[in-house]
Amino acid sequence: PQGSEEAKAFVNAFLKRSMPKKNEEAIQDILTRKAVVLEHYPKKKTKPKRKKTKGFTAKQRREMRLFEIEPEQQRYAIFLPLHELWKQYIRDLCHGLKPDAQPHMVQAKLLKADLHGAIVTVTKSKCPSYVGITGIILQEFKHVFKIITKEDKLKVIPKLNNVFSLEIDGFISYIYGSKFQFRASERSAKKFKLKGTIDL
């Protein structure tokens, strides 16, 4: 067994190694308290940066033709089941579209709803050739709707300067395309303000 002096020397040396940031006076002060809390300075681990998965660029999407609908798929009858699913989705979203439902509440929900599968009609337009076109929305982009008509023709209708109407369970809603130039994902978080007059 070690003597008291040897034990004291060992403790002093041990504390100097264990607490390199403490000076001699601070170590002696700790010893007089009869309790020693050893400090530990772990090395900071640098977290590896997570690489973000990059999606396709717009050019790559065009080259791969990701959003193009093949001519043999451009048939109205194929997308009627999609329209039925959309109607059920809207009924669930609006809690059944009951007769006593408040129109402005339904309108507010429709403004944020996904419109893929909805049957829309162009009711007003600065371009007369667009008026009366009716079809199922297949794709919605920021500035255009792609719709398939009953004549199995794929039409690209710009939102700008056009007013669209959609009807479900007797409720008719009007969409002013000029105020609707957002992607479907952006619309869900957008707050639409009620305005007194809306022009084309």
How would you describe this protein?
With 200 residues, the protein is an alpha+beta fold. The protein has two domains: 2-32, no CATH class; 73-189, SH3 type barrels. It contains six helices and six strands; from the N terminus they run H-H-H-H-H-E-E-E-E-E-E-H. The chain has helices at 4-18, 24-32, 58-64, 80-93, 103-112, 184-187, and strands spanning 119-125, 134-140, 144-149, 154-158, 162-168, 171-176. A six-stranded antiparallel sheet has the order 4-3-2-1-5-6.
Distance between the termini: 99 Å
How would you name the CATH homologous superfamily of the largest domain? Ribonuclease P/MRP, subunit p29
Percentage of residues in strands = 15-25%
Low-confidence stretches: none
Task: Tell me which oligomeric state these chains represent.
Answer: single chain
